Structure formats: structure tokens, C-alpha cells
Amino acid sequence: MNEATPLFSAIIPCYNYGDRISRAIDSVTFQAGNDCEIIVINDGSTDNSASILKDLYTRGENFSYFNKTNGGAASARNYGIDKCRGRYLIFLDADDEMAQGALDALREAIQQQPDIDVWAGAHSNIFPDGNETKASEPNFSQTGYLRLHDYINKKVSLVNGALASKRYIFDKIRYPEDLKNSEDIPVFAQSVALFKCQSLAANMVRINKHRDSLRHNLDFLIQGHLHVVDHTFREELFPKELMVLKRSYLSQRCLSLSRILIKAGQKQQGRAFFHQAVKARKSAILKWPYLKNYLRSFL
């Protein structure tokens, strides 16, 4: 990496992923080109992550790493934002891999449309049994209101590693550090609502699903679900025409939690969230997949 401002910064938070972090770093290192810096934030890991990173760095791997006290994924990403130099930021989880050819596809797209603030590509999911599923790139609407509406109502799926966002976006928005789960949702929502977005057909990231993933920690989901709504709909960021979607998002969050909890066997809590969803937005009761799940909880 030369001293010129790199086109990309790949920011990788790491907490107790010593057995996987080298794979994530390699997935970026092996990309074509020499315009992507790699920044790894060791977020107070208690395993061998620190020694693994030191060893990789000593061997001449092309990345920088920083050790900090544990503060969670949001804190680590914000730390990485402050340390990086790239024009476009890509947040890659330590247990995932940048897809082959991702940076080439981004370079070509950026050259053709340099005014785009956020590029969002396709991704694939790798399950513990080896099965792999493909998820296509998001189909963005033309206005910020519609993009926000589509995202909070799960018509558009966004994941870390599949987005490349201009650096100046993070002068305005940051990851909320009090959230220990779903901390990326406010950033995704605010990005699509406030900045110019475009989809990219190329596969950007391979997401490795595993059973101990924080994504499936019910306790964190329950504790943080209302905070996610408040962090997403910040009056100092959103005009009134966007704030009207807050109740709709609260209802959708409750529906999603209801389904997750009922399927996990926590039926009483699941029903309570379904009731909250309908209270927030009466039309929620017409969403048959969620209603069916609710009714089945009584069988």
C-alpha cells in the first residue's frame, strides 16, 4: 500500500475470532489491486486473537491492527472509522470473507458512477452443513423515503460486507455503541434514507453462519429491540416525512421478534410482541405469515 489515499478501507472488528480472522484478512489481501487498506480492530479478545494478529503482521501481511478494550461491534467499527483513510468504507465481520472479485466490481462501478454514495451488492450465506445460498443485490427505490420504507419492512436486505459507503457519510452517522445486537440497522436505515444508493450485481461477501453467532442471541435481541427503533429514527437526522415511518418500523420489529421467539419455544413472550405490533399498527394483524405463527403458538 502506498501513501496515497486508498480507494477502499476494509474495517474488520474482531472479538474472539482467532480461529477465523486470518481467513477474513486473506479474503481481502487476495483481491486484485493495491488500493485497499485493511484495518483490524481487536476488541478486547480473550482468546488468541491478539497473538494471531501480531504474528500475521510480523510476517508482512498487508494490514494494520489495533488493540482496544472490549466495547462491542459498534465501538470497534467506530474506532476503525477514526483510524482508516479510504474513500469508501467496507465493514467485514471477522468470521466472513470478501467474495472473489468484489473490489474489481466496485472499481468499475465507481468509475462509471462516481456520484453514488452507497454501493450495495449481492451476498451468499454459508451454513454449518456446507450448504450455500445466494442472495441477490437489493432493488433500491428512487427516493430516500421509499428506500427507508422498503428496508424497515424487509423488502430490501442489507448486510455487512456487501456495502461500500463513502467516508463522509460517517461524519454524520455512527454505530450506536449502546447496542450489542442489531447495531448495523440504524446505520443501514440512515444510509439508504439520506444518501444516494445504487445496487451492484456482483457478489460482495460470503457470510459464514454458525450456531454461536450473536445474530441469534435472543437475550440481546429482546433487550435492544426498542433502542434500535429510537436510534434509527433520530429527529436530528430525519425530516418529518421520514419520522412518520417510525410506528411502522416499531410494529415490524415486534412482528419479527414475535416470530423468532415463538419458533424458539418462548411462546408467551412471542405473543406479547405480536400484541405490541398490532397496538403500534393495526394493519399488522393482516400480515398472514406472522398471524399464522401467532395462532399456531396456541396449539
TrEMBL record:
Keywords: Transferase. CDD domains: Glyco_tranf_GTA_type. One of its GO terms (molecular function) is transferase activity. InterPro entries: Glyco_trans_2-like, Glycosyltransf_2, Nucleotide-diphossugar_trans. Pfam families: Glycos_transf_2. Gene3D superfamilies: Spore Coat Polysaccharide Biosynthesis Protein SpsA, Chain A. It comes from the Bacteria. Residues 9-158 form the Glycosyltransferase 2-like domain. This is Glycosyl transferase. It comes from marine gamma proteobacterium HTCC2143.
